[in-house]
TrEMBL record:
It comes from the Bacteria. Its cofactor is Mg(2+). It is an enzyme of class 5 (isomerase). Mg(2+) binds at residues 284, 416. It catalyses: chorismate = isochorismate. Residues 169-420 form the Chorismate-utilising enzyme C-terminal domain. The active site is at residues 190, 240. This is Isochorismate synthase MenF.
Length: 431
């Protein structure tokens, strides 16, 4: 018997209790022994219940698999207001994604949440009702009985039928020229422009299979999958943290400046050394640092900006500067509004860059360059939704962007987005 089966039996035993005919919130927890090859992503994929949410922290210390929604939230603000109704449950978690426009989101309070911290895992069943916990417990028992056994995720085997870019290369080169001309006129200092690549396949693509394949090869990344129903999903493997909060302690970062990576360590090190000393990339990174610091200085304590690092990924390398501070109060809504979209995904000044993007990009970013993660009263963490894809049955849309500043070369920026998109594209196309 798999360990999750034992945990579910424990939850069923707790559900046999006599719950009151009254509104309220109740969480049932069962510890989850990590003594078999249980994969939460495979378990989620085996279910016919939605929504589904998978999230793994980039260092691997935290991992979540959420199934079924007790309550949906159209924004992080609405989720935060709900959590504040239950101060006695500071670790009650809401999961999901925020759109590029941070006022819009798709978050939910999960019926069932598998969560792992280091080597310890817990299976949590949540009961919530504004009328009767007794009736809610009956629904929860039916939910648990409907669960399927975990199955391995089959690999991606579909054949691509067509591939198109928005914009295409000629349109991209024109767009970059338009942006650098606007920078020269003083309209803004930086703008981050993106490309959407649309792939059509001969069969539906399983988003869990693409997520599993990416998780195997794209290290030092957050991995996330939001599946609203059987036909559509949003997923990605992002290197960038938007924020991590533990009570009032906040960590964020500026991840901006890019060069190609290489499988050979020595060649990758030379490329990384060039990135560390390149004026254009250093300026791009410092613009993001300065913007984050200005946004956080208003209401918070001392800001610590750590020295620059090189983050080496499979296809690209980035410059990163971590920024730590202490909040006056733990307010995730303010974290989101202060930090998203950062200058690393939108530009500077934010409003002018945002308006340029809205006028000139030939597609709607939707969830791309938004954020994915979880929040509770005690803690929260969201990654920036980069290196991502939207899956709708036979269609996959890949996203990639590049920061444009004075001196940006259109051809080099095209190569940069090619390298970034390759993190997922190479898992779909065997060329």
């Amino acid at each position: 018997m798999h360990s999750i089966s034992t945990a579910l039996e424990g939850l069923c035993h707790q559900l046999a209790a006599d719950f009151p005919e009254a509104p309220g919130l109740h969480c049932l927890d069962v510890s989850f022994p990590l003594n078999d090859a249980f994969d939460p992503l495979g378990w989620l994929n085996a279910q016919q219940l939605y929504p589904q949410f998978y999230w793994q922290q980039r260092n691997g210390d935290e991992e979540y698999a959420a199934l079924g929604a007790i309550k949906h939230f159209p924004s992080l603000s609405a989720a935060r207001q709900f959590l504040h109704l239950y101060p006695h449950a500071p670790d009650l978690r809401v999961v999901g994604v925020n759109a590029f426009d941070p006022a819009q989101g798709s978050l939910f309070l999960p019926r069932l949440l598998w969560q792992r911290f280091g080597g310890t895992a817990t299976l949590r069943l949540v009961l919530w009702s504004d009328t009767s916990l007794k009736t809610e417990a009956i629904r929860a028992r039916e939910f648990v009985r409907s669960l399927a056994d975990s199955q391995p995720v089959a690999p991606v085997t579909q054949t691509v039928v067509s591939e198109t870019h928005q914009p295409d290369k000629a349109g991209w080169l024109q767009l970059i020229t338009r942006a650098t001309d606007a920078i020269a006129r003083g309209e803004f200092d930086k703008v981050v422009l993106a490309r959407a690549t649309d792939l059509q396949f001969n069969q539906p693509v399983n988003p869990a299979a693409l997520m599993a394949a990416s998780r195997q090869v794209n290290f030092q990344c957050y991995h996330f999958l939001m599946r609203s129903d059987a036909s559509q999903a949003f997923l990605g493997s992002s290197p960038e943290r938007l924020w991590r909060r533990r009570d009032v302690l906040l960590r964020t970062e500026a991840l901006a400046g890019t060069v190609a990576s290489h499988p050979d360590d020595a060649r990758a090190a030379r490329l990384g050394n060039w990135l560390m000393n390149d004026d254009k990339n250093q300026r791009e990174n410092m613009l993001v640092v300065e913007d984050i610091c200005q946004r956080l200085q208003r209401d918070n304590g001392v800001l610590d900006v750590l020295p620059p690092q090189i983050v080496r990924l499979r296809k690209v390398q980035h410059l990163r500067r971590c920024i730590w501070t202490t909040l006056q109060q733990p307010d995730d809504e303010q974290c989101l509004l202060r930090l998203q979209p950062t200058a690393a995904v939108a530009g500077l000044p934010r409003q002018a860059a945002w308006e340029f993007i809205a006028r000139n990009e030939p597609f709607d970013r939707e969830w791309y360059a938004g954020s994915a993660g979880y929040l509770s009263l005690a803690q929260s963490e969201f990654c920036v939704a980069l290196r991502s894809a939207r899956v709708q049955e036979n269609a996959v849309r890949l996203y990639a962007g590049a920061g444009i500043v004075s001196g940006s070369d259109p051809e080099q920026e095209w190569q940069e987005i090619e390298n970034k998109a390759a993190g997922l594209r190479t898992l779909l196309l065997k060329d």
